[in-house]
Amino acid sequence: MDKFFILVFTIAFGVFNAQNQTAPSEIFWNNLKKHCGKSYEGKITAGAKEGDGFSGQRLVMQVLSCEPNRIRIPFYVGADQSRTWDLFKNEKSILRLKHDHRHADGSEDKVTQYGGENSNQGMETLQMFPADQQTANRIPYASTNLWWITMDEKTFTYNLRRIGSDRVFSVEFDLTNSIEFNKRPWGWKD
Predict the structure, then answer these.
(1) Please, which residues have CB within 8 angstroms of residue 133's CB and are 6 or more apart in sequence?
(2) What is the pTM of this model?
(3) Hey, what domains does the chain have and what are their CATH numbers?
(4) Which residues, at least 6 apart from 119, have a Cβ–Cβ distance to it below 8 Å?
(5) How far apart are CA 181 and CA 76, in angstroms?
(6) pLDDT tens digits, 88-128
């Protein structure tokens, strides 16, 4: 009987603790928010090809806007100010990634608002975003895309892998060295 009581208590206490613990995605979100207003330089760590538009360019991420359920991170490639990574958080602490692409006049690019949603709360240092149905409908060749972001105290890494192909891309940013950077992405509105 004592073993049964200990087992029930252990299970009940474990469930109670699990319900009161902060979700890994919330920890990830809060750690990212600590960088709001800061900019960081990066480098391509996988997928660089001559003539790809990224190689040889200055790469900067800017954690420009942190709202309760949305974080916007413009990604600058040289003089190109067209890209913003939009992260959203729902009431269940599930994160979604969308790519906002704009022209210099601020209008939306033909290929924009694609991305995916994590199927669970991920990990404190890793969030994965398989392509969603909107992406599959809009960009059929990207229906097997898997994006993921890793973040610890030193680095933030944005990654893309197209399953079933050799398409891979990773860019890593040094979070230990914020830089002065005062640009805004094309079409930015506060």
Answers:
(1) none
(2) 0.86
(3) 25-174 (2.40.128)
(4) 94, 128, 130
(5) 10
(6) 999 999 999 999 999 999 999 999 999 999 999 999 999 99
